């Protein structure tokens, strides 16, 4: 054999994996289901199902095309093996002269696979992943010498480079780079009303078999597979994209930050996992959004969506490769609390958290504001050890791949880097959740109160957070207002809040 092309579970796009040198007469593809990968993080069962079901459907597509493929299906009878050990065994067996590895989406996986290939004395050819619109090297060039690495400036450069939403005179369409300010609406008191249901996909025979295996072999893992309805093939992913663009994109931007109890998807796309497994290409997703009538109905919606894919998605990946592995060790706020156990079962009296955690365990999904301003916010305010927060987010969402999960969790949500990704910590009191959802109406706590029996734990912890970190943020221009409000509280009130916050920590 001349070359063995490695296809990882989040690289299910043949056009990206193969280069022009691929010759089916002397080369072959290699895929493996690694149990150790599923266990390395205590993955939600639906997350494991998603990866394995998508891989097995991809295997079928490759077989139908007559591609030479070595596929290692999970063998639950023998001891679980790491991806690196499985690859090493097959290199010994197949003896390829070269192993072609497309950059994995996980720092640890990349290191271990490269080491395994080298240990087998095969040449490792590493390719950049053409699925993304920016390479880590291009991002590093952009970041070089900059004092501040804000997403907004990176995004504007990509808009110009790819001529997306740019007028003939080189100016941003609609006269603004960013319609973020138009994208923060809440629903009225009566709620969202009718929202088009997203297209869902009933598990076929292949997926049903995977579900049965996962239920049998990962019974102690969190989450449910009973509601699994995600797109696991390219055709299904394209259907999901078309459905989103036709049905929900026009309202996506406006209600991007809004929440409503029992409504997990609202106007969100549900496309992240399909994108992260490469069933969809970011370019085609952007093109579909730009070609849709929604562009003329609401430029703010379409720009908001393009910003998530072209801006945030590419930006967090660039930062991941720039900052790993050190990012994993940072803890700028010295957070040392354990993660509350209710994150794993959703059992809490806090209505906002119970809802976000409940749907996470049920579907493996929560939208961005639920992740950032409910589950992430509570962990940040409580002061949970970043490692534990990262392990939880990596485990529970069907779209979790480390290059995107880690920057969002550690950088954006937990501020571990002291302001590299986010200019300030995303902190708010219960008043924010009260404004953006109906959760507080259904809760036994009162978002206005920081002390006493009915005090909202988020509000208590918010003031306590500002109190604990006052010295650090007092000269921060974007936190001045919050600290000015804290200064209005007298010494005894602040002491009482501190004591109540401590009780919350002690009860974890
Ligand atoms: C703490 C935390 C952890 C997160 N973990 C993940 C993760 O493991 N995997 C993941 O894909 N996203 C993650 N995100 C980003 C974002 O929340 C999800 O991409 C989004 O909720 C997925 O739902 P959707 O497809 O309906 O997205 P939509 O709201 O419809 O957004 C459209 C698309 O934009 C992209 N996008 C939006 N926001 C971001 C972002 N901040 N970073 C990168 N891409 C973005 C996604 O591809 C998404 O599918 C995380 C965010 C936070 C705050
Ligand atoms: S009162 Fe506090 S805990 Fe209850 S739903 Fe509102 S923000 Fe959440």
Automatic annotation (TrEMBL):
Keywords annotated in UniProt: Lyase
SUPFAM superfamilies found in the cross-reference section: Cryptochrome/photolyase FAD-binding domain
Gene Ontology molecular function: lyase activity
Keyword Manganese part of the UniProt annotation: no
Any matching Pfam family: DPRP
Name of the protein in question: Putative Deoxyribodipyrimidine photolyase-related protein
Organism the protein comes from: Oceanococcus atlanticus
Lineage of producing organism: Bacteria, Pseudomonadati, Pseudomonadota, Gammaproteobacteria, Chromatiales
């Amino acid at each position: 054999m001349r070359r063995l092309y490695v296809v990882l579970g989040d690289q299910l796009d043949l056009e990206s994996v193969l280069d022009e040198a691929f010759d089916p007469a002397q080369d072959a593809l290699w895929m493996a289901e690694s149990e150790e990968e599923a266990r390395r993080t205590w993955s939600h069962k639906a997350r494991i199902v998603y990866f394995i079901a998508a891989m097995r459907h991809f295997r079928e597509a490759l077989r139908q095309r007559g591609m030479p493929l070595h596929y290692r299906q999970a063998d639950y009878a023998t001891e679980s093996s790491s991806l690196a050990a499985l690859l090493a065994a097959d290199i010994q067996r197949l003896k390829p002269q070269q192993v072609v590895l497309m950059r994995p989406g996980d720092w640890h996986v990349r290191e271990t696979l490269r080491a395994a290939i080298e240990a087998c004395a095969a040449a490792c050819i590493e390719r950049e992943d053409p699925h993304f619109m920016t390479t880590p090297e291009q991002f590093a060039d952009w970041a070089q010498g900059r004092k501040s690495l804000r997403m907004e400036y990176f995004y504007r450069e990509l808009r110009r480079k790819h001529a997306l939403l740019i007028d003939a005179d080189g100016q941003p369409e609609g006269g603004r780079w960013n319609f973020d300010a138009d994208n923060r609406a809440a629903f009225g008191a009566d709620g969202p009303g009718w929202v088009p249901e997203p297209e869902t996909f009933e598990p076929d025979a292949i997926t049903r078999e995977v579900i049965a295996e996962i239920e049998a072999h990962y019974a102690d893992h969190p989450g449910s597979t009973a509601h699994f309805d995600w797109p696991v093939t390219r055709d299904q992913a394209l259907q999901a994209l078309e459905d989103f663009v036709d049905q929900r994109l026009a309202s996506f931007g406006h209600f991007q930050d809004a929440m409503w109890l029992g409504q997990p998807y609202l106007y969100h796309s549900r496309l992240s996992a399909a994108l992260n497994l490469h069933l969809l290409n970011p370019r085609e997703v952007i093109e579909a959004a730009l070609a849709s009538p929604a562009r003329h109905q609401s430029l703010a919606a379409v720009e908001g969506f393009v910003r998530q894919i072209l801006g945030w998605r590419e930006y967090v990946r660039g930062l991941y490769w720039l900052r790993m592995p050190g990012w994993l060790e940072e803890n700028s706020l010295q957070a040392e609390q354990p993660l509350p156990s209710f994150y794993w079962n959703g059992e809490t009296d806090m209505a906002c958290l119970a809802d976000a955690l409940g749907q996470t365990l049920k579907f493996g999904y929560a939208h961005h504001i639920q992740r950032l301003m409910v589950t992430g916010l509570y962990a940040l305010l409580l002061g949970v050890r970043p490692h534990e927060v990262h392990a939880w987010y990596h485990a529970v969402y069907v779209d979790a791949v480390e290059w995107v999960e880690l920057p969002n969790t550690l950088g954006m949500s937990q501020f571990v880097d002291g302001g590299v990704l986010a200019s300030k910590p995303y902190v708010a009191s219960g008043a924010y959740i009260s404004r953006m959802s109906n959760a507080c109406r259904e809760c036994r706590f009162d978002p206005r109160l920081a002390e006493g029996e009915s005090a909202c734990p988020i509000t208590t912890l918010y003031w306590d957070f500002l109190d604990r970190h006052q010295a650090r943020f007092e000269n921060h221009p974007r936190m001045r207002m919050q600290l000015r409000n804290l200064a209005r509280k007298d010494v005894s009130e602040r002491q009482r809040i501190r004591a109540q916050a401590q009780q919350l920590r002690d009860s974890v």
